[in-house]
Design goal:
This protein is mostly beta strands and 294 residues long. It folds into three domains: 70 residues, Ubiquitin-like (UB roll) (Roll), CATH 3.10.20; 71 residues, Ubiquitin-like (UB roll) (Roll), CATH 3.10.20; 118 residues, Immunoglobulin-like. Helices cover 7% and strands 34% of the residues. The chain is built from three helices and 21 strands. Strands 5-4-8-6-7 form a five-stranded mixed β-sheet, with helices on one face. A four-stranded antiparallel β-sheet has the order 9-11-15-14. The chain has a four-stranded mixed β-sheet with strand order 10-19-16-13, with no helix packed on it. A hairpin with a 2-residue loop joins strand 1 and strand 2. The longest helix is centred in the N-terminal third of the chain and has 9 residues. This is Ubiquitin-like domain-containing protein.
Length: 294
């Protein structure tokens, strides 16, 4: 059923819910609206939500509206984005929420800090004792570490899709760094290399080979890669690599290198919005909405 409403740009989404005559038995606070895959905040104005004349909103009902606190995320340019969260949200959940805003970086490019402390993805807001009203800082992407500055090419490349199952993983180092420093390839042991399926906790067994003439390290898995799988590579995860210069001096090579790729048959999608929200109660015949983007 399509219902036409005339509203001012300064009206809030909550006022739209109050004016909606459809489903009159449902209180306004139980009416939620989705626009272009995004669940709108009831306190935002129509202008802030990007709504213009002729827009079509999809209304969904929630018998138990989400109970959450507001957390504000301020970036280095001073822009503030507000998300609703609970103490059980992980830092990664917050990053996913922030990524839904126009112009916001993807979760993997975000660094969040609170009270001068960099937040880890796996921890919850409750573990960090983040109370309302809290302001998190969205920091610029971290500067490349030593290892990242020395690596020239990785294969498969970052976020590459349709990677054949028979592929090997390799990384080639470019020109020497400042002061003529080069990595000592053989210092990378299996304990410092990791190739695993993204949802798995087990490393894939294989063999490391060192090509000193081309400054390249290759990992050959013992078994072919699984099709339609998201893989993650981590190099120097224990800071065990060393580098040396022409004079023979050596120093620890700090920082790890990590990248992801996808084997044939995998279609990587990012979830930008879901309804019902986690842990909410809805009517037995309520619809489920999941919005994706490539």
């Amino acid at each position: 059923k399509l219902e036409a409403l005339r509203m001012l740009c300064s009206s809030t989404v909550g006022q739209v819910a109050e004016r909606t005559a459809s489903v009159t038995e449902a209180p306004a606070q139980h009416k939620l609206f989705v626009f272009r895959g995004k669940l709108l905040d009831s306190d935002d104005t129509l202008l802030e939500s990007g709504l213009v004349d002729g827009c079509v909103l999809h209304m969904v009902l929630n018998e138990s509206p989400e109970v959450g606190k507001r957390v504000h995320v301020r970036d280095s340019a001073g822009r503030v984005r507000t998300v609703k969260v609970t103490e059980h949200y992980t830092v990664e959940d917050v990053k996913e929420e922030v990524a839904c805003f126009d112009g916001a970086p993807p979760p993997e490019a975000q660094q969040l800090a609170f009270a001068g402390r960099l937040l880890d993805n796996a921890h919850t807001l409750g573990e960090y004792n983040i109370q309302k009203p809290s302001v998190l800082q969205l920091l610029p992407p971290a500067r490349p570490r030593q290892l990242e500055q020395l690596v020239g090419v990785v294969s498969p490349s970052r976020w590459e899709t349709n990677v054949p199952a028979c592929s090997v993983v390799s990384l080639a180092f470019g020109r020497p760094g400042a002061g003529g420093w080069r990595p000592i390839l053989s210092s990378l042991m299996m304990a410092g290399f990791e190739l695993r399926a993204f949802a798995s906790h087990e490393d894939l067994p294989g063999t490391l080979r060192y090509d000193h003439s081309n400054q390249q390290i290759t990992f050959r898995p013992e078994v072919p890669l699984q099709p339609a799988t998201h893989y993650r590579v981590t190099v120097n995860r224990n800071d065990g690599m060393w580098m040396g210069d022409s004079s023979g001096e050596q120093a620890r090579l700090r920082g790890s290198l990590r990248w992801d790729f996808f084997t044939e048959g995998y279609l990587p999608l990012r979830i930008t919005a879901v309804y019902p929200r986690p842990h909410s109660r809805v009517r037995p015949r309520a619809c489920v909405i999941v919005s994706f983007c490539k």
